[in-house]
Design brief:
496 residues; mainly alpha; two-stranded antiparallel ribbon; 2% strand; disordered N terminus
């Protein structure tokens, strides 16, 4: 760790006596990594928390189906907007401090949702839960600051994998609770988990002394949020509202215009929310573009495979499984990501993170190419989920390292936050396109619209193509990283 001369926890830039004591009684790297990984798992679990009760939400909240979807959409938007903002705040005021703030907001959101029986308070609670997802990118950035470089690769890979692991493993847990208890217990469980995370972070994770100077860019934060909301809303709701509807077009065009103006303003701002000059560097830009493709391909598994598993068998396409069985079939995706993280880290250390990214993208492309012709049995779905887990595990392990070796230490959290937004953007586009393809390829049987074989062939073929495009983009990422003063955290790879 490097003691910074930038603003610290007190007005004079110094640490408090309690914080100095924490630094002299430092937990092990393993304890820190385990704590941040568990925190990431808990935050990711919030994404799939309400998935088992989606069909019942209109009845449970006394609303219509269209409005009930905001329970999911609000969480997605909150996570996408808050992640880079919380990253910048973490760089300026302390990453551990902002992690605790996010976890407290997550706990508060869980309480609000647990006490809600109508739509508006439920959405408010879900927004606060979505904000908490920023702890994953902040956790990765904390690792750069506080653990030994020799342990960094594996730690980053593990915490990065929690984004997929938490959702995949948490889904069957949520399904069991939703099917056997009142749905409010889902949110009480979320509150308990958030409290556990707060306690562990407060007692185990040390204070990072590295700080970025300057002031927070409020104008940039508002502009970024407004532009991103417009684009993500148009993409996620376009199929429901109509792609040519005035609302959809206004949001999409307006969001793009706002982000363009935001970009011009950010370039002229002394302390921008996102340093676009750094973001435009070849390794950062290409990594973020590849991240869109990985997020896109990853979300196809969670958007298309449950539909295939749960669709009725009357047309010979669906597999007729329950939500719980479907959740268990998707668990290998998260478990493989978890257990592959140390392998991916060793590959990145030996051959460079670029190699790990390329291998991951290739595995994903092959998995979906096979899925085009192999999706007629439950074991086929388990196979697809497992192989995609291998690919995403390698890719997710590589992306934070590629970002961190290309940005200054004082911009680590903000840069990782932007990378998370790129993954979210890819996932949002994937969810939208899967919905469009499936809804336009239906056959009615017994009064129920069931997706056709062609629908799944198109979806899986699209996933293979996007993953392959990500591989092509990743091939142009430079083999070598950059060195920055003030840290020795990221080992610079000479190969891969």
């Amino acid at each position: 760790m490097t003691d910074a001369t930038n603003p610290g926890e007190r007005g004079d830039g110094s640490l408090t006596p309690a914080e100095r004591k924490r630094l002299t009684h430092r937990p092990s790297d393993r304890a820190i990594t385990t704590t941040l990984a568990l925190t990431g798992l808990i935050a990711a679990f919030m994404q799939t928390l309400v998935t088992p009760i989606i069909p019942q939400l209109p009845t449970l909240l006394a609303t219509n189906t269209a409005d009930a979807t905001w329970v999911l959409t609000s969480t997605l938007l909150a996570a996408a907007i808050s992640t880079p903002i919380s990253g910048r705040l973490g760089d300026m005021y302390g990453k551990r401090r902002i992690v605790l703030v996010l976890l407290i907001l997550m706990a508060g959101g869980s309480i609000i949702s647990a006490l809600s029986n109508t739509l508006i308070p439920m959405i408010v609670g879900r927004v606060f839960q979505g904000i908490g997802l920023g702890v994953i990118s902040l956790g990765i950035s904390i690792l750069r600051d506080v653990i030994h470089p020799k342990n960094l690769g594996g730690a980053v890979a593990l915490v990065s994998a929690t984004l997929g692991v938490g959702g995949a493993v948490g889904l069957p847990v949520a399904a069991v609770i939703a099917q056997n208890f009142d749905y409010h217990y889902l949110f009480w469980l979320a509150l308990l988990l958030a409290i556990v995370a707060i306690f562990l972070v407060a007692t185990i994770v040390p204070v990072s002394t590295l700080r970025a100077g300057g002031r927070f860019d409020f104008v940039g934060a508002v502009g970024f949020a407004a532009g991103l909301v417009g684009i993500l809303l148009a993409v996620s709701k376009g199929n429901e509202w109509g792609w040519a509807s005035p609302v959809t077009l206004s949001l999409l065009v307006g969001g793009i215009v706002v982000l363009l103006v935001w970009g011009v303003v950010e370039l002229r701002t002394t302390d921008p929310l996102v340093d676009l000059r750094v973001a435009a560097r070849r390794p950062v830009l290409l990594t973020n573009l590849a991240s869109i493709s990985v997020g896109f391909a990853f979300f196809i598994t969670t958007a298309a495979l449950p539909v295939l598993l749960e669709a009725p068998t009357t047309t010979g396409v669906g597999l007729g499984q329950t939500l719980l069985v479907s959740s268990l079939c998707l668990m290998p995706l998260g478990l493989i990501m978890f257990f592959m993280s140390p392998v991916a880290a060793r590959l990145s250390n030996a051959r460079g993170p670029r190699t790990s990214l390329l291998l991951g993208g290739t595995i994903i492309a092959v998995a979906f190419a096979v899925a085009v012709v192999l999706h007629s049995a439950v074991w086929h779905v388990i196979l697809i989920s497992t192989v995609v887990g291998f690919g995403v595990g390698f890719a997710y392990a590589a992306m934070p390292t590629l970002i961190m070796r290309s940005v200054p230490p004082t911009e680590t959290a903000a840069a990782n936050g932007l990378n998370s937004v790129m993954r979210t953007l890819g996932s949002t586009v994937a969810a939208t396109l899967v919905g469009v393809i499936i809804s336009s390829h239906l056959v009615v049987s017994g009064g129920i619209g069931i997706p056709t074989t062609e629908a799944f062939e198109l979806v899986f073929g699209m996933g293979a193509g996007v993953a392959l495009a990500g591989v092509v983009i990743g091939a142009f990422i430079p083999r070598r990283g950059s060195r920055f003063p003030g840290t020795a955290s990221i080992p610079i790879q000479t190969r891969g």
